[in-house]
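ok posting inputs for the 6-O-phosphono-beta-D-fructofuranose job
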Amino acid sequence: MRIGILTGGGDCPGLNAVIRAVVRKGIGEHGDEIVGFRDGWRGVLERDTVPMDLHAVRGILPRGGTVLGTSRTNPYALEGGPDRVMATLDELGIDALVPIGGEDTLGVATRLAESGVRVVGVPKTIDNDLDSTDYTFGFDTAVGVAMEAIDRLHTTGDSHHRTLVVEVMGRHAGWIALHAGMAGGANVILIPENPFDVDGVVAHCQHRFDSGYSPIVVVSEGAKPKDGDLMLTTGEKDAFGHVRLGGIGAALASLIEERTGREARAVVLGHIQRGGTPSPFDRVLATRFGLAAVDAVHDGQSGVMVALRGTDIVRVPLSAATAQLKLVPAERYAEAEVFFG
Ligand code: F6P
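and the output
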């Protein structure tokens, strides 16, 4: 078979592990030909391809980013985009497509599958917000990076008797903040799913100072106060209509400083969370997803996404996985609240 593969959306540790697994299993076990599209859907629209043979995937397992490149190109936002995608697949003789991405990339995949393209999706995102899978790869690595940062900030915060506010990614889902904050022993965790009360945050910080230590506040970039709006660094939107989040950490730090009378600083972890080598968990999950995607293609499946349920890799409808985001349930946030203050 001729299998097309692409990586779309934000880069994410583990993308190369999926690519390697698809190539190794596709070529090694089935004699497939794997065609890589550069920069996500842009490569399909512009017929920008790279042959993915065994040599192309040698040594890429531990590498972050994606050897195929990525973009946030949305064929459905472009005049004639879907037709150009169909024409490329037809002319290159692609039998099946394996797009690796989050809600946007797989949202395009869902629509293409509905139009008759044979598609098997692979879920990736550091945000862990794709529905129908327990975890996406990349999340564990991002949480590890954020946790290490929090560990380091505890010591500098305590030495200087100041509040440290750590702003993490996650867009509209608080998974990174929740897990990194719990693992790093944060004194307050703020997530988009629970608009926060500024008085409550200040009280937790004050309580921490009163007990002789300095507070660490982990805030998700999409968190907002009960009576306020999302913080935006720019008004720009990407091709999928997402605004660029950021700035809540600095805003909160200045409020906390004003209200506690003690210095507060903000640290924005940003793309550090997405870069670098994947954790062992992410390497294994990404590899298993890649192997399972090839199996699904050869089983004649389409319109499905490989997913993690417990410890099993299963197949779920793409349409179900992309219908809504997987957000942090109230009871998971309540577990973290036990440690606030
Ligand atoms: O979806 C992954 C993610 O890192 C989000 O957490 C973040 O809001 C967004 O991508 C940032 O995207 P970009 O790198 O395009 O600014």
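notes: The radius of gyration is 21 Å. The pocket of 6-O-phosphono-beta-D-fructofuranose is lined by residues 10, 102, 125-127, 169-171, 221, 244-245, 274 (CB under 6 Å).
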